[in-house]
């Protein structure tokens, strides 16, 4: 059993049904276990500073979700760095 702090306990998070998760991982991206946990949410908002690791993570996440929107932000002109934002929605199982 995990021990939660008093502030977290006061939030009563177990009473909420979260459907959307926001992730902004480090340049290394997410590990496979984290991607599996994300797949439980109806919507994923994924912010990335590394298109290469984003592509790797999307290979996993698109098994359960589809890409609804994708945006590329060139905040660092004349460099190789860029930011990406992706909205994923869980696929409907038919």
TrEMBL record:
<keyword id="KW-0949">S-adenosyl-L-methionine</keyword>
<dbReference type="InterPro" id="IPR010280">
    <property type="entry name" value="U5_MeTrfase_fam"/>
</dbReference>
<keyword id="KW-0808">Transferase</keyword>
<keyword id="KW-0489">Methyltransferase</keyword>
<dbReference type="InterPro" id="IPR029063">
    <property type="entry name" value="SAM-dependent_MTases_sf"/>
</dbReference>
<keyword id="KW-0819">tRNA processing</keyword>
<dbReference type="InterPro" id="IPR030390">
    <property type="entry name" value="MeTrfase_TrmA_AS"/>
</dbReference>
<dbReference type="InterPro" id="IPR011869">
    <property type="entry name" value="TrmA_MeTrfase"/>
</dbReference>
<protein>
    <submittedName>
        <fullName>Uncharacterized protein</fullName>
    </submittedName>
</protein>
<dbReference type="Pfam" id="PF05958">
    <property type="entry name" value="tRNA_U5-meth_tr"/>
</dbReference>
<comment type="similarity">
    <text>Belongs to the class I-like SAM-binding methyltransferase superfamily. RNA M5U methyltransferase family.</text>
</comment>
<feature type="active site">
    <location>
        <position position="49"/>
    </location>
</feature>
<feature type="active site" description="Nucleophile">
    <location>
        <position position="49"/>
    </location>
</feature>
<feature type="binding site">
    <location>
        <position position="24"/>
    </location>
    <ligand>
        <name>S-adenosyl-L-methionine</name>
    </ligand>
</feature>
